[in-house]
Amino acid sequence: MKGTKINIEKETKEKGDEKILIGGDFNARLGDKGTRIIDKEKGEKRGSKDKANNKEGKMLWQIIEEMGCVVLQNDFAKLVRCDESFIKFTSFKFYKKSRTFAALNVTYTTFQDITSDEHVRLKVSAWQLRGNEFKKTVVDFSMGICTLYKANKFGALSLIKDSNLTGCPFPKDVYYINDMAPTSDVLPPFFPEGKWMLQLNFFNNGKVITEVQWMMTILKQL
Description:
Blueprint: H1 8-15, E1 19-23, E2 35-39, H2 60-67, E3 71-82, E4 87-98, E5 101-110, E6 121-130, E7 133-144, H3 145-150, H4 156-159, E8 174-180, E9 194-204, E10 207-219
Antiparallel strand pairs: 1-2, 3-10, 4-5, 5-8, 6-7, 6-9, 9-10
């Protein structure tokens, strides 16, 4: 997803700002890269806490020029309802791990095997905040849960990298997912900036078994 491209190195040199930019764990992530802005005037010399996400050691301005500056900020996740004859959540916790990183941890038990797209389908609809309420947009689609993971649609595998999910089929069992936090690379290219709500409905035989609302903010400039 491309946003407004800006040459931060040029901007800071021309304006004489006493700021440098280094690899780090700025939660914009900009795909897989992390960054951090250090203000020299304040004497800040914080190092990277997320070197694994920026192995090339690229500067923020380099990443922005290559990828465009798009930031997905995860605001909140809410479990609206679930069918406890199919799935039961023992933990559903959205939390801020740091000032810049928010994520979801869940633990749940399934009571039926999920072996194909026919068993569970995911329906996603996107709602944008306009005025004081969320309005439904044209983004509305559904997909079988097995296809979602086998084809790694929308970076699905990156969302469950810290989990005991091994991919379809999913036998009935106890599962956990830690630090689930979508980044801007999971979004379609036409999402404008602003506040959004993703309505996530999981269906079994046409019946909703889980409904989640995911709130996020899309920014196109730092």
